[in-house]
Amino acid sequence: MESLKYLFDTCILVDIFRGKGGVQEKVQEIGWRLSCTASVCLCELYAGAFKRGREVEFQRIEWLKSKIACLSFDNSAITYGRIRAELEKQGRRIEDMDLLIASIAIDNDLTLVTGNAGHYERIPGLKLLVWD
Hints:
The protein has helices at residues 10-18, 23-30, 39-52, 55-67, 77-89, 96-107, 117-120, and strands spanning 6-8, 35-38, 69-71, 111-114, 127-130. By secondary structure, the protein is an alpha/beta fold. The protein has one domain: 5'-nuclease (Rossmann fold). β4, α7 and β5 (127-130) form a beta-alpha-beta unit.
């Protein structure tokens, strides 16, 4: 069995839900079985679903959970703390949710797939794949 290689950021999941041109095809190319997301991304998706109150959004999240693995943050606390401290010392702080997602990718040796390179470029040791 092949191991996981890619972690989808929240923006990529939203692009999948919306059928954004090219994203679904790219997912098919790399394969669902090699892909995962983070519990932090699910938090962001659920927040959006509750904000809009549309049942279809909850159904999309459940569909997603049936397709790919979801990694938790528990084992990435040290990485998060180290990177956050480094970036703050440099005056280059980033959003906590983005740093949580990146920490999970780093600790699991995954390539983070995102459409928002600017959110992640400053994180040392992060493998990044940008889908525009």
